[in-house]
Amino acid sequence: MEQALQGLKVVEFGEYIAAPYCGKLLADMGADVVKVERPPQGDVSRQHGPFPGDQPHPERSGLFLFLNTNKRGITLDPATPTGRDLFARLLRDADVLIDGYRPAQMDAWGLSYDRLEKVNPRLVMTSITPYGHTGPYRDYLGHDINSAAGGGVSAGNGDPDREPLAFGLTQCDFQGGLNASGATTAALIAREATGAGQHVDISIAEVLATLHVGVNLPTYIYRGIVATRSGRRGSVGRYPKALLPCKDGYFSLSAIQLGEWIRFVELMGTPEWSKNPRYRDRRAMAEEYPDEVDALVSQWTRQYTKEQMFQMGQDKHIPCAPVRTADETLAEPHLRERGFFVKGVTPDGQTFEMPGPTARFSVTPWSLRRQAPRLGEHNEEVFCGALGLEREDMVALRHAGVI
User: Fold this and answer.
1) 246 by DSSP, 3-state: which?
2) pTM, whole model, 2 decimals?
């Protein structure tokens, strides 16, 4: 095998970020992913930028081009009887179906797991929605911000005197897709033992509640404290866990272990104030008077740039990181040295940079085999090749709005 997931057949039927990102992660590791877009406009992410020259175009969306590398693309509308039949035929030999639509909508299209497992008992169906396929919110509309609120992330994100926030850059949807790819792989491993597929039900809100909010449960259980929004620092725990100002911006400092804090104080030159017993109780420093301590620490940090702070922290084994702009991230030497960014190409030949592999396998490596598909680019290849339709059938289906 040249790649880890080579030979795996995946059908992806979902829009925007979560489902396509799951499909991308599988495709980038070698899976044959057929992306199904509903005609005539296709995936909604085609309407989202960034675009070259800030000129919107459905074939030049940076978001779409990044999320759909290494996939073949077709158009198909399962709202029609013919479309449902073609979709079912597409799934007969598939290993995985990734879907990102609400349960009621999938049921209306005849694409529920109960029906599809009769078409293909070995099918692993991975559904990625804000609230999952069970429970009282299963059919609610939801977006990244709703998942953030439902998963509890927004309860601790933002300034205390302002509105709660989601993570930046739709990270909730990306994390939903990432977890779905891992769960899908686990279901495929289980299939090797049982011979049967299964329905993998991913609730993005539950992903966030588990990964980001669950860590705070011991604080509530043992201390009765509910973490709240506290701006650029953690509201509970030990000092310091915050974004602090420096000469040219901010850096993140999370020296919560005793040894880390001692090394940071030594790095500052052990200032006289640090010998005061008031600044030895780091839980009180974090929870009772953090602004006071920040002001003292910042007198020193403002003398240095964020890159200097980062390097000094690395040298002294102190967990910290610079808060970089997008341009600074693109130019970051470590990412450049590791080849993290790769060249993408728009259908009309314009190049751009995008993130590359999320992990590097030494024997079955990640590779960029093809750019994201144009809308319906592989219709003939899939429908006439894999499904055996004639070109005349394709014309009729196109006129009927099925493909």
Assistant:
1) strand
2) 0.94
Both structure tokens of 326: 């997008």
What totals of helices (H) and strands (E) does the chain contain, helices first?
17, 11
pLDDT in tens, 315-326: 999 999 999 999
Strand, helix or coil for residue 351: strand
Q: How do strand 96-99 and strand 124-129 relate by DSSP bridges?
A: parallel
Structure tokens at 344: 């993408």
pLDDT at 200: 98
Kindly report the CATH number that applies to the domain delimited by 241-323.
3.30.1540.10
Q: Given 173, 291, 294, 393, which residue is catalytic?
A: 173
Q: Which fold, 9-210+341-399? A: Rossmann fold (3.40.50)
Tens-digit pLDDT profile for residues 58-95:
999 999 999 999 999 999 999 999 999 999 999 999 99
- Identical fold, 9-210+341-399 and 241-323: no
Q: Which two tokens stand for residue 140?
A: 């609610």
Domain boundaries, the chain: 9-210+341-399, 241-323
Distances (CA, A) of 191 to 24, 28, 314: 22, 22, 44
Concatenated DSSP letters for 178-236? Answer: HHHHHHHHHHHHHHHHHS---EEEEEHHHHHIIIIIGGGHHHHHHH-------TTB-SS
From the number of C-beta atoms within 10 Å of its C-beta (0-12, 13-18, 19+), residue 68 rates as buried
Whether 173 sits among the annotated catalytic residues: the reply is: yes
Sign of CA dihedral 164, 165, 166, 170: positive
Residue 214's pLDDT is 84
Residue type, 110: G
Can you tell me the distance from the alpha carbon of 78 to that of 92, in angstroms, rounded to the nearest whole number? 15
280 has a pLDDT exceeding 80: yes
First to last CA, the chain: 34
Q: How far apart are CA 136 and CA 130, in angstroms?
A: 12
Question: Residue 297 in 3-state DSSP?
Answer: helix
